[in-house]
Automatic annotation (TrEMBL):
Residues 2-279 form the Glutamine amidotransferase type-2 domain. InterPro entries: EgtC-like (IPR026869), Gamma-glu_amide_hydrolase (IPR052373), GATase_2_dom (IPR017932), Ntn_hydrolases_N (IPR029055). The keyword Cell wall biogenesis/degradation does not apply. The lineage of its organism: Bacteria, Bacillati, Actinomycetota, Actinomycetes, Micrococcales. This is Class II glutamine amidotransferase. Pfam families: GATase_4 (PF13230). Keywords: Glutamine amidotransferase. Signal peptide: none annotated. Gene3D superfamilies: Glutamine Phosphoribosylpyrophosphate, subunit 1, domain 1 (3.60.20.10).
Length: 279
């Protein structure tokens, strides 16, 4: 469906991971070896928290319906700013039209959200899901994707208080309503959420066969293993990325996130938990 990347660590020029690596996100938009769609050219998005921003700061967004590989503004922007936490996403549309409001990441207050996957049979029960969104959030819906509806359902059901519980409740509702409409496996995807300080990532599908998800290994450990690899020195000790697929072929640089796993990435590093959805 799509490819995405989330970075957290010392302030960094986003181009360092979005554009420059061997298998950068922009390179993956042209050729995604681990994706279900090789080409992801139906628009892209980039969202970032400014350097020095205080807790609760609202992230900035840049969306375009151009292919990521063709957009000079993306190159200018990611080469000019620095950010300690940013998201980037390249899209392969699977039904909803190609328009800026359908490009990830989505934003509500200080929260960002992006998704690679789909809600199977979404059109048949979209109305029920949209009506389950809290009325105070309903007017925030701008696009037509299942991903954006999932985000606002999770906000409605407690994402801001407990991201894992909020996502679990939203996915449980989607599975319940989907199965009532004859869809055996309603949910598919990997998800990233951030509040400006922490990134939460999820790999889950109703069928137990989810799109790929990886995160980087510890930079200091990689420097010890590969002391002559100069590009590792571009990153600080706290630098971490969560990605749909690895950005390079360096052995041990990226670790696959297991199926049905919820990952918290904060100042202390990665923390994995089993992700369970109520029957």
């Amino acid at each position: 469906m799509c490819r995405w990347l989330a970075y957290s660590g010392e302030p960094l020029r986003p181009a360092t991971v979005v554009l420059d690596p061997q298998h950068s996100l922009v390179a993956q938009s042209l050729n995604s070896p681990l994706g279900n769609e090789t080409v992801n050219g139906d628009g892209f998005g980039f969202g970032w928290y400014p350097s020095g921003a205080v807790a609760g700061s609202i992230p900035a967004l840049f969306h375009s319906i151009e292919p990521a590989w063709h957009d000079t503004n993306l190159r200018e922007l990611t080469g000019a700013i620095e950010s300690p936490l940013f998201f980037s996403h390249v899209r392969a549309a699977a039904g909803p039209p190609i328009q800026q409001t359908n490009c990830h990441p989505f934003r509500y207050e200080n929260w960002m959200f992006m998704h690679n996957g789909f809600v199977s049979g979404f059109a048949a029960f979209k109305r029920e899901l949209v009506f389950a969104i809290d009325p105070s959030l309903y007017l925030e819906l701008k696009g037509t994707t299942d991903s954006e509806v999932l985000f606002y359902l999770a906000l409605t059901l407690g994402l801001r208080e407990n991201p894992m519980a909020g996502l679990a409740a939203a996915i449980s509702l989607i599975e319940k309503v989907g199965r009532e409409h004859g869809v055996a496996f309603p949910m598919q995807g990997t998800i990233a959420v951030a509040d400006g300080a922490t990134i939460w990532a999820l790999r889950y599908s109703s069928q137990g066969a989810t799109r790929t998800l990886f995160h980087s290994a510890d930079i200091e450990a990689l420097r010890e293993l590969y002391p002559d690899t100069a590009w590792l020195n571009l990153f600080g000790k706290a630098a971490h990325v969560v990605v749909s697929e690895p950005l390079n072929d360096l052995p041990g640089a990226f670790l696959e996130v297991p199926e049905s796993t919820f990952v918290t990435l904060d100042a202390s590093g990665y923390h994995h938990q089993p992700f369970l959805v109520a029957a």
